[in-house]
Amino acid sequence: MPQIYYEKDADLKVLAGKRIAILGYGIQGRGQALNLRDSGLEVVVAQRPGGPNYDKAVADGFTPTSIPEACAQSDVIMLLLQDTLAPEVYRTAILPHLKAGKALGFSHGFNIHYYQIEPPKNVDVFMIAPKGPGSLVRELYEEGGGVPALLAVHQDATGQAKRVALAYAKGLGSARAGVLETTFAEETETDLFGEQAVLCGGVSELIQAGFQTLTEKGYQPEVAYFECLHELKLIVDMIYKTGIHGMWNRVSETARFGGLTRGGRVVNEETRAEMRRILCEIRSGKFAQEWINETQAGRPRFKTLMRRAEEAPIEAVGARLRGMMSWINPEGKPAATANRKLSAKRSNGSGRKLAPPQTRRAGAAGGKRKR
Of 84, 137, 93, 134, which is closest to residue 111 (Cα–Cα)? Predict the structure, then answer.
C-alpha cells in the first residue's frame, strides 16, 4: 500500500525559527511562498529585479533579494527555477551557501535524478511536488483545501529530512489533501512520461489529428474545433471528478458504445509500443540529455516546433471562437473578429476553399448529447 501522509502526520513547529528561501517567483514560486507565509512560516523570496515577477513579489508584500543572499540567510532552500537554468545557478549562487545541516528542496526531481545537481553530503535533500500548477496551489489553499503532493527524500543528513518535508507540505496546504511518498526517480520519470505521452504531447496530437481529419473532409473548422477541442474540457472534468467509468456513465449510450468500440483503434498496440519506447528514453536518460543538448545549442528545434504549433490552423479558429466567449476571456478583450459574422468561405489553412461535406447527416447523426 502507498504511504500517504496528512495534516496529523506533519508538524509546522519543525520549521519554527527557520527561514525558507523560495528561489524564483514564477507561478509555482508565488503560490508556495504565499501559502507558507500564510501558514505562519518565515519566507524570503529570491527574484531578479526588473521583471514582472519581481514587481509581483513586491506587490505581494515581499522584499525580493538575490539568490546568494537568500541562500546565505536561510535554513531551507527551495529551488523552483526552470530545470535547464537550475544547475548553473546552483553551482554559482547556491552551493557556496549550503552549510552543514541546511535543507535543499525541489518540486521536480529532474536535476537530482539526472545528476545535473549533486549536493554535498552534509545537507538534507527533499522534494515536495504539488500535483497542480502554483495558481491552483494558492487557490485551493485560500478555499481551505489543498493540492495533493508527492514527497521524496534523496538525502537525510540530519535525520530530520522527512519531518522537514512534511512540515513544508503542511505549510503549502498539501497535507490537507494527502502527501504520497515516492522517490526522485519515480516522480521524475512518471512526470516526464505523463507530459510527453498523455497530458501535453499525446492529447494535443490527438486533438490536432481529429481536427485535421474533419476539416480535410470538408466539415466546418468551427464545428471541428468544438467537437475535438472545446468539448474536451467537459469530458476531462467528468473524468477528474468521477473517474473514467464515471464519465462513461454520464455520456449518452451512443457515445459510450462508439467510444468503447473505436477508442482502441486509435490508441492501439502500436501506440502502446511507442509509449513504451518513450518511457525507455526517459528512464535511460536519453531524453534528458537530448533536452540539455538542445538548450546548450540555443534551442533551434524547440523554437521551430513551437512556431509550427502556434501557426497550426486550429489556433486561428480557436482564437476567434474563444474571443466570443466572455467566460473564457474574462478581461473582455474580444478577438478582432469577435463581433463579425463568421465568413461563409471556410479555409483549411492552406487557402483552399473547402467543399461541403458529401452528407451533413454523416457528421450529425448520433450526437453525443453529453449535457
Answer: 84
**Separation between Cα atoms, residue 214 and residue 217, nearest integer Å:** 5
Instruction: Report the share of the chain in percent with pLDDT over 70.
Output: 88
Kindly indicate the confidence band of residue 361, based on its pLDDT and cuts at 50, 70 and 90: very low
Residue written as cell 468551427?
222
- Straight-line distance from the first to the last Cα atom of the chain, in angstroms, rounded to the nearest whole number: 37
- Relative to beta strand 19-23, strand 42-46 is parallel
User: CA–CA distance from 295 to each of 42, 75, 108, 292 (Å)?
Assistant: 35, 31, 18, 5
For residue 336, which amino acid is it?
A: A
* Set of cell numbers at residue 242: 468521477
Is residue 108 part of the annotated active site? The answer reads: yes
Confidence of residue 328 (pLDDT cuts 50, 70, 90): confident
Of 97, 108, 113, 154, the catalytic one is: 108
Dihedral class, residue 108 (left if φ above 0, else alpha if ψ from -120 to 50, else beta)? beta
Report yes or no: 93 and 71 within 8 Å, Cβ to Cβ: yes
Residue 329 confidence class, pLDDT cut points 50, 70, 90 = low
Question: Pairing mode, if any, of strands 124-130 and 149-155?
Answer: antiparallel
Per DSSP, the three-state class of 136 is: helix
Kindly state the DSSP code that residue 350 receives in the 8-state scheme.
S
d(CA 155, CA 242): 37
298-to-84, 291, 295, 311 alpha-carbon distances in Å: 12, 11, 5, 21
pLDDT of residue 20: 98
What single letter denotes the amino acid at residue 89? V
Average pLDDT value for residue range 258-279: 97
| Residues in contact with 210: Cβ distance below 8 Å, sequence separation at least 6, in sequence order | 224, 227, 228
User: What span, in angstroms and rounded, lies between the C-alpha atoms of 338 and 336?
Assistant: 6
